[in-house]
Amino acid sequence: MNLRKYFIMGSQNCDRKPEDILEEAAKAGITAFQFREKGEGSLTGKEKLALGQRLRDICARHNVLFFVNDDLDLVEPLEADGLHIGQDDMPLEKAREIYPDKKIGLSVSNQAEVDNSPVHLADYLGAGSVFATSSKDDAEQAVGLEWIKSLRQQYPDIPIVGIGGITEKNAASVIKAGADGVAVISAITKTDNIERAVKSLS
Ligand SMILES: Cc1ncc(COP(=O)(O)OP(=O)(O)O)c(N)n1
Ligand SMILES: Cc1nc(C(=O)O)sc1CCOP(=O)(O)O
Ligand SMILES: [Mg+2]
């Protein structure tokens, strides 16, 4: 499972067609994608499903892992490779029961969340926010690179993806701290050069 360059996006993050942005990012070398259609201006119902299908097809063509965020009803219709759940979503034990063979990512933002989570049931951990972000309304305060280092020390073997405020400039520091990959929204959706941005994600 290659989570090195993990792009997360929904139509609410895009100033132009999400399909075009994803196609460019896939060509530039992202290794994983998460469909996160959430927040102000996001699509619902049939429109959400239809966009998910188009984005899923792009990932399949480029051999990019496809994850669904939160909306677990979309996992089967979109034939997702996996799903990402946070501390306020479906409990990991239940998600694992329903999807024994899918890759499941779990968000962890602090030690209490780790201590109260069945981490062994997750395929990877999403650790953040590493830096300040404006892409998520309810993001926790930035936890810094120390959180990546601490998680890596506690879990030498589980894949860790840093998330939150990661840019072309600071991505390398996240990997150096022990993460296997970086997950980004705005570093790709807001850039004027997707190819350069993806290539710079260390
Ligand atoms: C890779 C990755 N890590 C963390 C998150 C955040 O998940 P969550 O805390 O459930 O918040 P929402 O994304 O659902 O708003 C993520 N999506 N992906
Ligand atoms: C979806 C998400 N989850 C976060 C967390 O801390 O769990 S931060 C975040 C948004 C990341 O967007 P950007 O790359 O633009 O900062
Ligand atoms: Mg969530």
TrEMBL record:
Family: Belongs to the thiamine-phosphate synthase family.
InterPro entries: Aldolase_TIM, ThiamineP_synth_sf, ThiamineP_synth_TenI, TMP_synthase
MF term (GO), any: thiamine-phosphate diphosphorylase activity
A Pfam cross-reference name: TMP-TENI
Cofactor note text: Binds 1 Mg(2+) ion per subunit.
Species of origin: Lentibacillus persicus
Entry's EC annotation: 2.5.1.3
Chain's role: Condenses 4-methyl-5-(beta-hydroxyethyl)thiazole monophosphate (THZ-P) and 2-methyl-4-amino-5-hydroxymethyl pyrimidine pyrophosphate (HMP-PP) to form thiamine monophosphate (TMP).
The reaction(s) this protein catalyses: 4-methyl-5-(2-phosphooxyethyl)-thiazole + 4-amino-2-methyl-5-(diphosphooxymethyl)pyrimidine + H(+) = thiamine phosphate + diphosphate; 2-[(2R,5Z)-2-carboxy-4-methylthiazol-5(2H)-ylidene]ethyl phosphate + 4-amino-2-methyl-5-(diphosphooxymethyl)pyrimidine + 2 H(+) = thiamine phosphate + CO2 + diphosphate; 2-(2-carboxy-4-methylthiazol-5-yl)ethyl phosphate + 4-amino-2-methyl-5-(diphosphooxymethyl)pyrimidine + 2 H(+) = thiamine phosphate + CO2 + diphosphate
GO-annotated biological processes: thiamine biosynthetic process; thiamine diphosphate biosynthetic process
Residues the record lists as binding 2-[(2R,5Z)-2-carboxy-4-methylthiazol-5(2H)-ylidene]ethyl phosphate: T133, S134, S135, G165, I185, S186
The protein's name in its UniProt record: Thiamine-phosphate synthase
Gene Ontology cellular-component annotations: cytoplasm
Cofactor(s) in the UniProt record: Mg(2+)
HAMAP family, sorted: TMP_synthase
Keywords: Magnesium, Metal-binding, Thiamine biosynthesis, Transferase
Residues annotated to bind Mg(2+): D70, D89
Limits of the Thiamine phosphate synthase/TenI domain: 6-188
Binding site for 4-amino-2-methyl-5-(diphosphooxymethyl)pyrimidine: Q34, F35, R36, E37, K38, N69, S107, K136
Pathway per the UniProt entry: Cofactor biosynthesis; thiamine diphosphate biosynthesis; thiamine phosphate from 4-amino-2-methyl-5-diphosphomethylpyrimidine and 4-methyl-5-(2-phosphoethyl)-thiazole: step 1/1
